[in-house]
Design a protein that fits this description.
Layout: H1 32-40, H2 50-73, H3 76-109, H4 117-131, E1 139-143, E2 149-154, H5 170-186, H6 198-210, E3 215-220, E4 226-235, E5 244-251, H7 256-310, H8 328-377, H9 381-417, E6 421-424, H10 425-442, E7 446-450, E8 457-460, H11 462-478, E9 485-493, E10 496-503, H12 536-546, E11 550-556, E12 569-577
Parallel strand pairs: 7-9
Antiparallel strand pairs: 1-2, 1-5, 3-4, 4-5, 6-8, 9-10, 10-12, 11-12
Helix pairs in contact: 2-7, 3-4, 3-7, 5-7, 8-9, 9-12, 10-11, 11-12
């Protein structure tokens, strides 16, 4: 007969990514209170889900840090200033060259008039400046070597101020204002250079231009606008080594660069707002996927706790079935449902055990009550002696029964509490068979031990497994009479070890091969009635299964014998993992 194989666990239904409330949870398998809560519940309640709030908060923190780093490290302003400065320098140099050429042409047109370069410059500067294309707000001036203004022109149109440019929206405007405030607080900007005196700044650049090379300066006004001022020399005769007769000064429009920087920053902030909304949406979906199933599991557990505390409606607590989820929540659901099922199985087992204990104790108590009642009316001494023997037998039976019940009730706790250790199974069997072999010899029973040489190490509780083999061997001896035989042998089979106890006793009724491992079941001759509690094999089965093994019983028959032929004995097999 083959051992009882463990039930095949149900196969999980494979699933892809599960979002939101998309999990297997049939309404008929859920508690009515849970279904009512689910119907009233919003997809995600931030005020009731700390986990959802944490998910959204930390996702937003990461995004804010990323955008702040981009804004802080991105050299938009420096790049725009450098580009604007290069453009102004080029424009100033070209304007100076045009002025020099026009002056030279004026002098050459009337060489006998003896027009000086300075006089020619004064008459042609306004005309030349009028032909130079200027962006709105750009200031172009021609200065003499002393810094006095010869001619000037301001680009027509409205210059882009701090609120100019392409514009944004209320949200990006607010974020821009926040960023500007933080920049002022943490001093990331350049300090103002003083009053809005562009002329004074340009005069300060004249000495550099007089030396034959242009000057440039980036500065800020008192309002905080960034300006770029450049100068370029005007050489007499147009030659680079000629004397400098004038200086061309160009200054950018107030707020132009800041508006460009603001436009670029608003584009980054608009992307930030879009990313923020997407992050919040995905965080809500993620939080709903994680928080809602956990909330339902917690609600079901709390419902069971409240039900037990109120002693209200009876019935099993049923957890939501999330086993279709291919993630940790699905594993958690399977584990919790398995634990709950194991708990109910244990409760039912304890209930059945209590009922069996009550039934087993009532039998000797009834016998005691009858013997005591009969003893009161007995007249002869031999009758009293018989009744006293019955009372003594029932008291010893009760004592044995209570001791075995106590050991059985402590077994679960001890199997969980004690630490498994490796030990030599063959050494344990040799010690047991040496001791029990003496008892068999005294009773005239042949005791055969067939154990392999060497060691066979298994992991487990040595004392508890020794108890199993003692139960099996003593059980076999109890069914044997003088002239019978008991054989104990062990063999290693791949990753398992088999320990077999055989006897030549009367065997086991075929219909009782499974029942003998139940509590309080005993299939013994009438003369042995009351000498055994019927717990030994049940305890042995519990110990073996706790070690991941299996135990079964079978009758010994000849290979060619009929199944209903009388057995030659009984065989108990214990299989343990190595």
């Amino acid at each position: 007969m083959r051992p009882n194989e463990p039930a095949t666990p149900p196969r999980r239904r494979e699933a892809e990514v599960v979002l939101g409330d998309d999990w297997v949870r049939p309404d008929e398998a859920a508690e009515p209170e849970l279904r009512a809560r689910r119907a009233r519940r919003a997809p995600i309640l931030l005020n009731r889900s700390p986990l959802a709030r944490k998910i959204i908060f930390f996702n937003l923190i990461a995004l804010v840090v990323l955008i702040a780093g981009v804004l802080f490290l991105n050299p938009i302003r420096d790049s725009l200033v450098a580009q604007r400065q290069a453009a102004l320098v080029t424009q100033a140099v070209l304007t100076g060259q045009v002025l020099a050429a026009r002056v030279e042409a004026t002098i050459a047109a009337d060489p006998e008039a003896g027009i000086s370069p300075v006089s020619a410059l004064a008459t042609t500067a306004e005309t030349v400046l009028a032909t130079v294309p200027l962006r709105p707000g750009i200031r172009l001036r021609v200065l003499d070597p002393d810094g006095a203004e010869i001619a000037a022109r301001l680009g027509a149109g409205n210059a882009a101020g701090p609120d100019g440019g392409r514009g944004g929206n209320v949200i990006t405007g607010f974020l821009n204002a926040v960023w500007d405030g933080l920049a002022r607080v943490f001093g990331t900007g350049t300090a103002p250079d003083g009053p809005d005196d562009v002329a004074a700044v340009e005069r300060g650049l004249v000495p550099a231009a007089l030396q034959g090379h242009g000057g440039a300066r980036v500065w800020r006004t008192a309002r905080g606008d960034t300006l770029v001022s450049v100068t370029a020399p005007v050489h007499a005769g147009g030659a680079a080594d000629g004397p400098v007769i004038a200086v061309v000064a160009l200054s950018s429009a107030a707020g132009e660069i800041d508006a460009l920087v603001r436009d670029e920053r608003e584009q980054v902030l608009q992307f930030f707002v879009i990313a923020l909304l997407v992050s919040i949406g995905l965080s809500l979906v993620l939080a709903s996927t994680i928080a809602n199933p956990l909330a339902e599991l917690a609600a079901a557990a709390e419902l069971g706790r409240d039900r037990n505390s109120r002693q209200a409606r009876q019935g099993r607590v049923r957890l939501p079935d999330l086993s279709a989820r291919p993630d940790e929540i699905g594993r958690l659901s399977i584990a919790l449902r398995g634990m709950l099922a194991a708990l109910y199985d244990r409760l039912e087992s304890n209930e059945q055990f209590a009922a069996d204990v009550a039934h087993e104790i009532k039998n000797p108590l009834a016998s005691l009550r009858s013997a005591v009642g009969t003893l009161r009316v007995a007249r002869r001494d031999d009758q009293r002696e018989t009744l006293l023997n019955v009372i003594d037998h029932d008291v010893r039976r009760l004592d044995r029964l209570v001791s075995d019940i106590s050991n059985a009730s402590r077994l679960d706790t001890e199997l969980v509490r004690e630490q498994e250790e490796p030990f030599d199974l063959l050494r344990t069997l040799r010690n047991l068979t040496e001791y029990l072999g003496r008892e068999a010899e005294e009773r005239g029973i042949d005791f055969i031990v067939d154990l392999p040489e060497g060691e066979l190490v298994v992991q487990g509780l040595e004392a508890r497994l020794a108890q199993v083999f003692v139960n099996l061997i003593t059980n076999a001896l109890s069914f044997c009479e003088e002239g019978d035989a008991v054989r104990v042998w062990a063999r290693s089979r791949e990753n398992r070890v088999l320990v077999v106890v055989e006897d030549t006793g009367p065997g086991i009724p075929d219909q009782a091969l499974e029942k003998i491992f139940k509590r309080f079941y005993s299939e013994r001759p009438v003369k042995q009635f009351g000498n055994h509690s019927g717990l030994g094999l049940a305890i042995s089965k519990q110990i073996v299964e706790a070690h991941g093994g299996a135990i079964w019983a079978e009758n010994i028959r000849k290979p060619d014998a009929e199944r209903d032929s009388p057995p030659l004995g009984a065989r108990f097999v214990v299989g343990l993992p190595v």
